[in-house]
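Annex B. Sample input.
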Amino acid sequence: MTTIKRYSNRKLYNTDTCQYVTLEEIAGILKADGDVRVIDHRTGADLTTLTLLQVVLEQERQIGGLLP
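Annex B, continued. Sample output.
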């Protein structure tokens, strides 16, 4: 499982690769691995659902046709 930390400045950090990632890169991780967990760095709250919704909306904005 890939763990992503979200910082207060909205940056997303992949703890496995020690690099900042974008929503597009998270979509790539989902396609390749299929298992991502996003947590808030400060509080430890699970932000996976919120972040995955942002990934879907970003994909819809870029290529369209994902949502009816």
